[in-house]
Write a structure and sequence with these properties.
elongated, 4-stranded mixed sheet, two-stranded antiparallel sheet, 6 helices, alpha+beta
Length: about 190
């Protein structure tokens, strides 16, 4: 067996034919693994859907069903503040926050795992505005919202259209309708 010696007379690492091959391939293999591991790839996302409550619970509403509504909201003027109904239920709050990334206006709704006292006071009135009447209307005006979205399909027993009529009776101006989603301008002049 032949030993190769370096300048000091000792055997150098990788000086054998086997060590040289290992060194020659190790860096490219490590670099290739690193590049593959760090490559940006789109992540598959499960389609987001919410149960319909207006037609006896038959069917779902998908994010793509709501796309025209959120494109409309994206065109609202700067400074618009959106509130969505139903207000206060977990499905509605997470939907409002998630889909706010489609229009980027501030939202009155919210879900982040914690709720400030002001939200809890507002929720107590806006979770059923028809039952809380004028107090709910004052809470809605005090919220700072300029735009109200009513997802009529997300209410049990036909109360979604009733809520839309309630808003109109108090002076909210209809702006647009997308199937069973209604959009209103909220005027702050009338208590």
């Amino acid at each position: 067996a032949r030993l190769e010696r370096g300048a000091t007379g000792s055997r150098t690492a990788g000086s054998t034919p086997q060590g040289g091959r290992l060194r020659r391939w190790a860096l490219p293999v490590i670099a290739a693994v690193w590049l593959i591991e760090s490559a940006g790839q789109p992540l598959p996302v499960t389609a987001v859907k919410w149960p319909r409550r207006d037609a006896g619970g038959a069917g779902v509403v998908s994010e793509s069903d709501l796309a025209p509504l959120y494109r409309y909201l994206a065109r609202l003027p700067a400074g618009s503040v959106v509130v969505e109904f139903p207000f206060g239920d977990l499905h509605g709050e997470t939907r409002a926050v998630y889909l706010s990334t489609r229009h980027w206006h501030p939202v009155v709704n919210g879900y982040s795992g914690g709720f400030p006292a002001s939200y809890m006071r507002r929720k107590a009135l806006l979770d059923d505005p028809l039952a809380h009447g004028d107090d709910a209307w004052r809470a809605l005006l005090a919220s700072g919202a300029t735009c109200v979205v009513v997802h009529e399909w997300a209410f049990d027993g036909g109360t979604g259209p009733e809520l839309s009529r309630w808003l109109e009776a108090r002076g909210a101006r209809p702006l647009a309708t997308f199937k069973s989603d209604r959009v209103f301008e909220l005027r702050h002049a009338r208590p």
